[in-house]
Design a protein that fits this description.
It is a single chain. The protein has a three-stranded antiparallel beta sheet with strand order 1-2-3. The chain has one domain (1-108). The protein is elongated, with a radius of gyration of 22 Å. It is α+β, with helices and mostly antiparallel strands. Strand 1 and strand 2 form a beta hairpin. The chain contains two helices and three strands; from the N terminus they run αβββα. The mean pLDDT is 86. 14% of the residues lie in helices and 12% in strands.
């Protein structure tokens, strides 16, 4: 975490809530001020590595002034078909690797014979 952000948070920040990943969300003390083009200043302190994809959709909407109330004030209504939010796992051990990928053994299924390559005439 950057020392300047931590100091700014200690002096000016009012904690609003946290998410399931341990990220903490803040707004400036004293309510909205004329900063950020007349909008209230809001920010997040990430737990661990600062990775923007670890911010869930509800908190993303609040951080970017899409909604006025933080998710802690509004009961969350999730559709039954919605999967839980995951951060971007590209480049990590949890990244998706399809069958035949080098890191999954590199063995692909046999061709079925229905493929006919294009040959220029």
């Amino acid at each position: 975490m950057i020392l300047g952000t931590l100091l700014y948070t200690l002096v000016y920040g009012k904690r609003v809530g946290s998410d399931q990943f341990g990220n903490k969300y803040y707004r400036r003390k004293g309510g909205p001020r004329v900063v950020n083009n007349g909008r209230e200043r809001r920010w997040v302190l990430y737990k661990g590595k600062a990775e923007a994809s670890s911010v869930p959709p509800a908190w993303h909407g609040w951080l970017h002034h899409i909604v006025d109330s933080p998710p802690t004030d509004i009961p969350e209504r999730k559709p039954v078909y919605e999967k839980p939010h995951l951060p971007n796992l590209t480049g990590t051990g949890g990244a998706y690797r399809p069958p035949g990928h080098v890191l999954r053994g590199g063995v692909r299924e046999e061709a079925t014979g229905d493929y006919e390559p294009w040959r220029p005439e």
